[in-house]
Amino acid sequence: MNPNSDLHYALEAKYYTSKEIFEKEKNNLLSTTWLFACHDSEIPNVGDYFTFDLCDESLFVIRGKDGHIRTFYNVCQHRAHQLVQGKGNCRAIICPYHAWTYELEGNLRSGPNLASVQNLERRSIRLQEVKTENFKGFIFINFDNNAIAMDGWFPGVKTTLGEFVPNINLLKPMEWVEIPEKCNWKTSVENHSECYHCQINHKAFSEGVIDPSTYDIQPQGYCLRHTTQMNDCANMSYNVDLSVPHAKEYTTFFIWPLFAFQVYPGNFLNTYHWRPEDVDHCTVWRGWFSEHGEHDEVISKMVIQDRETTVAEDITLVESVGRGLKSRGYKPGPLVVDPSCGVNSEHSIMHLHKWYREGMDL
After folding, report:
1. First and final CA of the chain: distance in angstroms?
2. Residue 307 dihedral angles phi and psi, to the nearest 5°
3. Hey, what CATH topology would domain 157-360 get?
4. What's the pLDDT tens digit per position in 272-283?
């Protein structure tokens, strides 16, 4: 019990260090929220598939003959052999074990000697599907088949994202940057979701991209919306075409719990998606997008600058927190929740903790 009910305290260390709680997260919170799979440009043609792992499950997305993208558990309904590996293209999904064959839409087509099985209702056998949504070209899945659509979770985000990135339908990944971090996934997400630390630790970002005096973060459904103005043009680390709407603004849409759209001044889109590995490790994937995935020199320089400054700085921060959370000397302190919000406030972390408690039924 907190001695002052008006204060909001950080989560106890056990929520970042307990293996048992991590397992509960996978079976509860992460199994009932929208999680990123891939970009639809990675499976452009009928029969293209892409495999990935989430919550200890192997899954694959595949484009059907009808053009629709579906996600299936990567397991044959016969005797549980995995069906596909990596990425590729197929005319039908054929299990390597006994050659049971499925249509691209998941229904069983054939299998050796199946005709000898009496009373077999072939139409009743199909791959187990996972709820899937295409969100402006980004494919998300939800293990909960009764989950409401993403527009219900993140109201207005799809429309506003399209306004900030008017060419989003032309964008494809130009580069993926893999960032292993020795910390719990929530430590990394929380670090991303506040800018209380930015002016102290991110000089290039605070002085060469954004104007910290205008920075704020507000919830929008289960999204944290970061907004600020760009820094003075003379201080910017790259040139910005000011003729494009919203070009002078920076915004991030953090999609609870493991994804973020980040739009730099000049309407440059990049993304974060987190992959929890175990209680002490996660991988952050930074995606950088350009029209048709073609090389863009400005974006290429931004990738390098981001990796050498903000990313490197954040790795140091979150891994130090990861070590500190295991100390017997740590007692959770109060969050700095400023009623006026702004850059030096942790009200966004208060919202994350509220969503976490809801998802974990605490």
Report:
1. 14
2. -65, -35
3. Naphthalene 1,2-dioxygenase Alpha Subunit; Chain A, domain 1 (3.90.380)
4. 999 999 999 999
